[in-house]
Write a structure and sequence with these properties.
Elements lengths: L5 H14 L13 E5 L5 E6 L8 H7 L9 E6 L11 H8 L3 E6 L9 H7 L3 E4 L3 H7 L1 H9 L3 E8 L18 H12 L3 E5 H7 L20 E5 L17 E4 L3 H10 L4 E4 L3 H9 L5 E6 L26 E8 L6 E7 L22
Parallel strand pairs: 3-4, 4-5, 6-10, 6-11, 7-8, 7-10, 8-9
Antiparallel strand pairs: 1-2, 1-3, 11-13, 12-13
Helix pairs in contact: 3-4
């Protein structure tokens, strides 16, 4: 097992922080950060990747040093690449700069870019791998899922009462969950490439589906996820989804085909915020990978369910979250529990288009 110094671990945490920098577009490229240390473990420079066609994190950091990297250690969240694309290979840039040691968190699973560690070792550079690998893996969950499965990661987000209701019997739903939970949900939106709903929800709620701050101010358009509506019904010309706050895509051919189209557009992480019909269809089709449920300590007794029929008839067939994690958000009357976990897929084929019902969703 490779060994790391305390300075390298602290540097890796700063590299992960750099990789999460706001304003970096989501999409087909991984988020990567790099910190370069001098032989005494002091930070010399920090860099991160800002999207397709921009310098990679390593070259971004090296550019700030202007030739002062000889004998240094580069701490990177992802294995330095070994290929020439729109930018040059980072492994070669580190070698040419005279870097003596490279510590990276996660091996690059992309066969096109992988191999940087071998190039570095062949040039006499000391290489160590695995530092804070779990944190680095979480940083690029959508990208890693896409490489493994050839489609976007789908996170189903819902907010419901203790008895599983999305709204009261009269359709009112603001607010079932706490303000703290709604802020948390905005953070979840900001981590995704696209937000998906059905036409029923779009027509019933007229949502904006934007990332907003605590004052309700939308983030710049460049930082907004793609807004995706699934279904065949037309949206009004004055629908908020048609404004210029964020881009909009309407998918007419259903979720399975739609996910393939989103993949081609560079989308790697979809946040499903649709109502019970769309959610059930995607779960039945095995297209939901994880669930984030905000559960409020309130009973409604009636109103729309969080999900429609999944075709399950016994407790033995129940879909149980894998590795569930519960976090309490807020306190007192504001308390909400966030439950998160992976969902085992049913894998049933999706054969028909989905037309959403008018059940409202939360936190638009």
């Amino acid at each position: 097992m490779d060994r790391f110094t305390g300075e390298e671990e602290r540097a890796m945490r700063r590299a992960l922080e750099a990789a999460r920098a706001p304003g970096v577009p989501q999409g087909p490229n991984p988020r990567v950060g790099c910190v370069i240390l001098d032989p005494q473990g002091r930070e010399l420079a920090r860099g991160h990747h800002r999207g397709s066609g921009t310098p990679h994190a390593e070259t971004d950091a090296l550019a700030r040093l202007r030739g002062r990297a000889r004998g240094a250690t580069a701490v990177v969240t992802l294995e330095p690449c070994a290929h020439t694309g729109r930018t040059g290979p980072c492994a070669r840039a580190l070698i040419d700069a005279g870097v003596a040691r490279v510590v990276y968190a996660l091996a690059d699973p992309n066969p096109v870019a992988a191999g940087g560690a071998e190039v570095l070792r062949a040039a006499g550079v000391d290489v160590a791998v695995g530092l804070l690998a779990d944190e680095a893996r979480d940083l690029n969950r959508g990208w890693l899922h896409g490489l493994a499965h050839g489609r976007p990661l789908v996170t189903w987000k819902l907010a419901a009462s203790l008895d599983g209701r999305l709204a009261a019997a009269d359709g009112t739903s603001q607010w079932i969950t706490s303000a703290t939970a709604r802020r948390d949900a905005q953070h979840l939106r900001a981590q995704c490439d696209a937000i998906m709903i059905g036409t029923g929800t779009a027509l019933a709620d007229d949502p904006s589906l934007t990332v907003r701050d605590e004052r309700g101010v939308p983030a710049p358009r460049a930082a907004q996820p793609l807004r995706v509506v699934v279904g065949t019904r037309e949206l009004p010309h004055d629908a908020r989804l048609r404004d210029d706050a964020a881009p909009l895509v309407i998918l007419r051919d259903g979720p399975a085909t739609g996910l393939a189209e989103l993949w081609e557009r560079g989308v790697r992480h979809v946040l499903l915020e649709g109502g019970p019909t769309l959610a059930a269809s995607m779960v039945r089709a095995g297209l939901v990978d994880e669930v984030v449920a905000y559960v409020a300590p309130v009973l409604l007794g009636d109103g729309p369910n969080a999900v429609h029929s999944l075709g399950l008839s016994s407790i033995d067939e129940a879909l149980r979250l894998c590795e569930p994690e519960a976090v309490v958000l807020g306190e007192g009357a504001e308390l909400t529990v966030r439950l998160r976990g992976r969902l085992p897929a049913l894998g049933a084929p999706l054969t028909t288009d989905v037309v959403e019902t008018s059940a409202p969703t939360r936190d638009k």
